[in-house]
Amino acid sequence: MRAWVRTHRRPAVVFRPSGLLTRLAPYPGAPAHPxxxxxxxxxxxxxxxxxxxxxxxPLTLRFGGRPGSTNLLPVEHAxxxxxxxxxxxxRPDGLRTYHVVNARNTPIRTVLEALGEHNGVPVRLAxxxxxxxxxxxxxxxxxxxxxxxxxxxxxxxxxxxxxGLACPPHLAIGHDDxxxxxxxxx
Length: 186
What we know:
The protein is α/β, with parallel strands linked by helices. The chain contains 7 helices and 8 strands; from the N terminus they run H-E-E-H-E-E-E-H-E-E-H-E-H-H-H.
């Protein structure tokens, strides 16, 4: 984008939204939401490693570190903030970038609990190493994705904050929001 702005001597605004969710039904033909793809991957793992599931027991993901969080934001706020940022900031001189993020991260445990409920298989995080051969096989298959469970990133929202458009803390995404988004296909 910087090269394009320099070459064409035109302004540009880049928005970098975090994970977007809504309780509204998507428009027809919308692509699957990343969380829906994670849910499907969870169902595929359950089919591939049935021994990792014990009747009446949650699927246990063994994780050695501290569980992280992810940044999820209501799409309605993101759309409003992006339109308002352009209106309030006016035409940029060059390239302007805004991170459109939630003021509060969502704990990864909350995401896993909602995914588990959506799939009908409770999921829990537990310390330590896999306890059974089936758990070990599942963990090998998940490989690097298990590292994602410990990510706890914070994003810079000072650009939108200067315009009075930072996401208010009361817009935290919780279990019911994630579940509604998964059900509606957002």
